[in-house]
Amino acid sequence: MAGSQPTESHLGLKLLLGASLAVVIGLAIGALILPGETAEEDTAAEHMSGVSQRVYPSSLVGVLEQPVEQQWALPAAVAVVGDAFFVVDAGNGRILKLNESGRVLASFDSDSYAGQDVQHPMAIASDGSRLFVANSLSAEILVLDLSGRLQKVLSLRPIAADEQAPRPIGVAVASDGGIVVSDADNHRVVRLDENGGVVWSAGTGTRAGGSEGFNVPGALAIDEAGSIYVVDTLNGRVVKLSRGGAFVAEFGRLGDTTGTLSRPKGVAVDEEGRVFVSDGLMTAVQVFAADGGYLGFIGRQDPADPASTSLFRAPAGLSLAGTRLYVMDRFVGLVTLELFGPSPPEVDVVDESG
Fold first, then answer.
1. At 52, is the pLDDT very low, low, confident or very high (cuts 50, 70, 90)?
2. What's the pLDDT score for residue 261?
3. What is the rounded distance in angstroms from the CA atom of residue 73 to the CA atom of residue 89?
4. Which distant-in-sequence residues (6+ apart) come within 8 Å of 315 by Cβ?
5. pTM of the prediction?
6. Above 50 in pLDDT, residue 298?
């Protein structure tokens, strides 16, 4: 209930670099079945013929592989607030609060709150003073303060009478306090007011595409103008919506060649309108310009070497803080990258073969 305090624990920092792209694809097809996808859909995914060789400039700062004295399981997302990192430890049903050195300051789970279960949290967002957690299997958004105190629970209900209970796997917070939630099972994106009332919904309630709707909407981001970016997972794209929920544009399309997306997972938008999308099958972060043009990808240990192994195995949630991009990889851990910009030189390799 509101006012309950979280438990305390500690950890240290480890570093890990690299993973083979061949192993990655095997893991992605054989084991990486995330909420919103079925085994049949994932095993039907074709072998990737290759990511574009246009590299978006960045440098690796470090990788937090695992907590010392604890372990996270399939971490899904991260929110950065000041010098604190809030990690969604989906497999263990908790949120971990870490400092910059990787030490766990607190853990928020079902034991932290009397009468309130934390059931497979999938996403997290912050307005700078509060945390908003997509409590996926409970059809709820949990609102916490930065110390982990539960402030309120927003219960989600079906938009239409014939729909299933919502399953939120994405959440974002607008500057006016509005909360945007993606409902994977009903293929909707819903905007709520601060008390959980529905302001609008986008999508048909069933699998759709084009400007009509979504096929498993996932991670969300909001830019400085209030536009909303939706990972449309099984349509292989990111959809841009207006503040009022109208279709504006799309980034990428389903595929396995330059500028396409195979299994998009996370999304972030910088102040220039560049869109960063993690791709679980391509094991990379794809980057698009504000007008939809393809800028390149992030992922090689050695950006200039086409044979270099990937930094990632299953990149998922993204968070941007200034020029730092944080990538929550479900198997590698928390990857921190420094981005070069605002108009970075490109590292090009001629091979664009598919």
1. low
2. 97
3. 6
4. 265, 266, 278, 279, 280, 283, 284, 285, 299, 327, 328, 329, 335
5. 0.85
6. yes
Instruction: List pLDDT tens digits, range 79-130.
Output: 999 999 999 999 999 999 999 989 999 999 999 999 899 999 999 999 999 9
Q: Which helix (H) or strand (E) holds 27?
A: helix 21-30
* CB-based contacts of 298, cutoff 8 Å, min separation 6: 55, 56, 58, 276, 284, 285, 287, 311, 325, 337
* Residue ranges with strand state E in 136-283: 140-145, 150-155, 168-173, 179-183, 188-192, 198-202, 217-222, 228-232, 237-241, 247-251, 264-269, 275-279
**CA–CA separation, 265 and 280 (whole Å):** 6
- What's the N-to-C CA distance of the chain in angstroms? 53
Check pLDDT > 60 for residue 198: yes
Distance between CA atoms of 347 and 15, rounded to whole angstroms?
26
Q: How far is CA 285 from the centre of its chain?
A: 11
How high does pLDDT run on average in the chain? Answer: 85
Answer whether 168's CB lies under 8 Å from 141's CB.
Answer: yes
Beta bridge partners of 7: 107
Count the Cβ atoms, other than its own, within 10 Å of residue 290: 15
Instruction: State the Cα–Cα distance between residues 94 and 112, nearest whole angstrom.
Output: 10
